[in-house]
């Protein structure tokens, strides 16, 4: 980004021989008259040695006066060699080189062995660029007088300049030879060593170059350029501390040396990045700021400060430094991209789009910005534009793994699960460790799993095996093994805001026996809302602990869990967005549980138990799980309705004169098979209508495709109303007033939508299946006392819908009493449910105190099989538990929250969206440009 530092090049004839008066310039005094004028002075000179007087004048830099005296001497004695030399020096110092050369030549003619005259001839030749002739003169001078120091020093200078000229002409080896000849003549001539250092640096012979620079610095301790170039070599080798030390020595002798200051800024910036990546972000920030002390307009340091402050969640500061970086480097597309990420997180989507577009105006094929712009378009409901941007990102960078992941999210949102899985798998081919794609693939497979297929289990199991290798595991804990002591329960989730999961975790947070069960919440919420604050207040009011862990490394969160002495750690997210399964993989708690957020096994051997019930996971299920199932006698969920729901409205069929069926489920759950059944129902009920609400209906192409599919099934598009995402929760809940009968999806059943429809008085028809994801609606409806709305197959599903639609009076009566029926059922009895949940926790703790730790057995089995079958993954028996746990009594019931997708790397989920992605995050610290030698 920023301009690179500079390498000080080869020294040409810059050195002046300060100890030789003959090479110092001077000016005659303005009031001095010729000493040879008339009067007493002339008479006194006639009696004195005029030549000695001329030399005195010359030594005092009075060259005009001295020249006049030398000329007088030569008028009397034209063969005075000393006078010719003195005259030549005076002419030379007045920049009269040609006349000076004539005087020196005459001196040489009179005395061919005169070293002084020969040397000064050489000096004039050098000044004219006649280096070879100058060298010849110096050599003659030394031959005449080997002890003549001036000739030796001048020869070293001219040989050095000859070496540089040869190097610049491409004759590097000959140039090197000249430098060594210069050193042989004058072993103390620092520039020769220095220029050798430059040449060896360019030849990448850095050890030799360093040796030469060090010798130059020894001979000339104030040699700033040598220190600077040593710093560059150390910097390019990655030895930033040594580089900085060299730059400090350079600036100590030359405080205003701009090249060294710029190079110091580069080295400090890189050191800041190094220590930040090692985990010391505060020292990293300090180094970035110190870099700006040396180069206040260094854009790289500003950019990296933006990155650091972003990682520290100090987004206002990050914005300041990204904007400064862009100001001082208008070509910094990365700063624009990262500004867009921050504005997107703050829901300032227009500003985010502006920033991404600015980045693309600088770098049209900048894949990250293309991808991130696609993410914003997704949030804005511009699905077609989003797909176009992400596809362009892939064209710009075919190995951009996360772009394929994000394309998969778009396919999933549009209900095309097969293409979504293909995109996720393409991402995984490029980046096998892509966490988003790996987990999104597992999640997507649930939508199309219609049978008890072991492939889904195997996919989860294999993922868990690979994932465990990324984290170290704790195998012992300091928790006191007292089976009856008060327990510390930890709940970890990113969904403590107005999100589906929040409706099912609220009851335990409120109703726990806070004497015997201390609650510690680990909140990874990206963007807190009023519900977050309400949850926090309730937890703290009852003596619990609330820890905000968003943005904190999962290993550090695991350490926090250990420090908090958590006895039972419950994760509520599974493979959905912003999960903390990496923390769970560390096994920071003696007992680990998964609950609520995911309708299948996590596949993670570090988790002991999965909470469910006998309807969602029947005792004779063939579905395999890595965790051991703990079945609660009632529903495994407890629903706390939204206070914003509003009253139940009358049955719309009474005023409309026709039945309206509806579904507010995720489009990914509305499979072609579901549409076939729905079309059968609508076609069998005259004048009936279908209303479907989901986020992707913001897209014209998605709406048209959906309607086209129904048209092919015989249902006219005019009978179908499609609604996009409704942002405000109260408006979302009131939208249920538009439907008479809710149609659940299958095989992947709804959860929160089922609870919402029942609470708003809308009966919901569901159908059971083979695995947990199929049976959540079964569990919910049975718990409310509506088992008559559960179908065993598609035909029965259709008949139940037709039966409800056939009697509007009965439908209206059911609508008016449904909320009360639900509130009085175990599904909404938070106190009773939580007592049962505590019984489950106590039983888990009893087993731990007896040494019964399912996850440790699983891990041990895994390790044994890895040793026996080093060429194979886990065998199918690994981590599969068929042992039935002790039955635990519990009341209360509720369903899984609608799943939110992992994916777009960075953007936080919208507060009211049940299926939001994450977008590509901040670019990594920008590597500073390599410093160049000075």
Automatic annotation (TrEMBL):
Highest taxon of source: Eukaryota
Segments for region (Disordered): 1-43, 908-934
One Gene Ontology cellular component: nucleus
Catalyzed chemical reaction(s): L-threonyl-[protein] + UDP-N-acetyl-alpha-D-glucosamine = 3-O-(N-acetyl-beta-D-glucosaminyl)-L-threonyl-[protein] + UDP + H(+); L-seryl-[protein] + UDP-N-acetyl-alpha-D-glucosamine = 3-O-(N-acetyl-beta-D-glucosaminyl)-L-seryl-[protein] + UDP + H(+)
Keyword presence, Transcription: no
Pathway stated in the Swiss-Prot or TrEMBL entry: Protein modification; protein glycosylation
Ranges of biased composition (kind: Polar residues): 923-934
Keyword terms, alphabetized: Gibberellin signaling pathway, Glycosyltransferase, Nucleus, Repeat, TPR repeat, Transferase
Location(s) in or outside the cell: Nucleus
Homology family: Belongs to the glycosyltransferase 41 family. O-GlcNAc transferase subfamily.
Function text: Probable O-linked N-acetylglucosamine transferase (OGT) involved in various processes such as gibberellin (GA) signaling pathway. OGTs catalyze the addition of nucleotide-activated sugars directly onto the polypeptide through O-glycosidic linkage with the hydroxyl of serine or threonine. Probably acts by adding O-linked sugars to yet unknown proteins.
Protein name, entry field: Probable UDP-N-acetylglucosamine--peptide N-acetylglucosaminyltransferase SPINDLY
